[in-house]
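Duplicate of #3305? Posting structure anyway:
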């Protein structure tokens, strides 16, 4: 006999973590490399939070250290950020998809804040490559004791007193058998350079700072010298030839966008015609597959574009195709073709 509703009913959807957690681990991100981007981004967030909360937090104390143990197949991400208490770990880590960024921004809403975290899922990307992940954290809050968290990728976790002596957090990733390739210097350096090169906090690996910390497009065009544009181009795109010209994009209405587009010297090399325009969101590399943003006839250009409010999907890997993207694309096309129009106008016209 079919069950029939006799009156209108309301209720809440029930989502079970034992069903959704495997999906998050396996399908949330298209590339496993992204796990390190997300963990370093979280470390930057933690440092930004401490910067706003701790007036005595000096620039030289703001740092992120990456340590690889090849024999143990582990990777540590160590930051000097605001840290977490045991209660905060329960709140921000154990509750999947709860982002601490929004709550923190509301708490310090009178301060201009730039917190990367948005969806609260980035930490769990580490389980794409790990058998186990641990957190050892000491909070900046007065009277806090260090807290230790451990999870083997199931929905079970354990917590105990941690070992951190200084305020900050240490994340340790224990690579699983399928992802032991990440326990190589070359692999970690490649990921850090690709995704973290312009994060605003010094990131050290093997005792050396590995990121530039400043993207040139974050400065005002009038404050940048020609030789700085050229040097930046050569460093980022590993091109030994000077670019022909460049366009410095800087707009804050009707959308926020900064970037530099370079036109490289023509040459008879197959790789040259591929171009390379990188998309960033708050200094974090997102993608270089920008067909929705940059038309094919401009893909010869090289450069970087940072759009803090760019509409991304939950994994921050792909653009969402909406009206905002179309407006940004029109702006880039207009700016990109202007130098060519000027050059054509200077040439003698044939009748």
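Output from current build:
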């Amino acid at each position: 006999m079919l069950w029939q509703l006799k009156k209108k009913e309301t209720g809440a959807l029930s989502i079970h973590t034992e069903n959704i957690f495997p999906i998050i681990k396996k399908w949330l991100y298209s590339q496993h490399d992204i796990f390190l981007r997300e963990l370093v981004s979280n470390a930057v967030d933690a440092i930004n939070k401490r910067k706003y909360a701790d007036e005595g937090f000096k620039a030289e104390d703001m740092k992120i250290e990456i340590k690889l143990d090849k024999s143990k197949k582990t990777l540590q991400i160590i930051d000097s950020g605001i840290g977490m208490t045991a209660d905060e770990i329960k709140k921000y880590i154990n509750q999947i998809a709860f982002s601490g960024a929004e709550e923190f921004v509301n708490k310090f809403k009178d301060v201009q804040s730039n917190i990367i975290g948005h969806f609260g899922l980035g930490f769990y990307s580490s389980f794409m490559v790990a058998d186990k992940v641990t957190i050892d954290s000491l909070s900046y809050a007065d009277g806090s004791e260090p807290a230790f968290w451990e999870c083997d990728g199931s929905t079970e976790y354990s917590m105990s007193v941690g070992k951190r002596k200084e305020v900050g957090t240490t994340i340790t990733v224990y690579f699983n058998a399928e992802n032991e390739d990440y326990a190589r210097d070359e692999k970690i350096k490649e990921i850090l350079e690709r995704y973290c090169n312009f994060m605003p906090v010094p990131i050290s690996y093997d005792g050396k700072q590995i990121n530039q910390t400043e993207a040139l497009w974050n400065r005002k065009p009038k404050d940048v010298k020609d030789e700085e544009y050229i040097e930046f181009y050569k460093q980022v795109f590993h091109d030994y030839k000077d670019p022909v010209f460049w366009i410095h994009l800087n707009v804050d209405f009707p959308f926020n966008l900064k970037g530099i587009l370079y036109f490289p010297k023509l040459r008879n090399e197959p790789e040259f015609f591929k171009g390379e325009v990188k998309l960033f969101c708050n200094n974090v590399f997102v993608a270089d597959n920008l067909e929705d943003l940059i038309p094919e006839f401009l893909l010869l250009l090289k450069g970087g574009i940072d759009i803090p409010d760019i509409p991304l999907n939950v994994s921050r890997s792909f653009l969402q195709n909406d009206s905002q993207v179309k407006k940004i694309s029109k702006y880039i096309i207009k700016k990109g073709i202007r130098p060519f129009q000027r050059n054509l106008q200077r040439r003698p016209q044939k009748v």
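Confirmed duplicate; merging threads. The radius of gyration is 23 Å. The chain has a mean pLDDT of 79.
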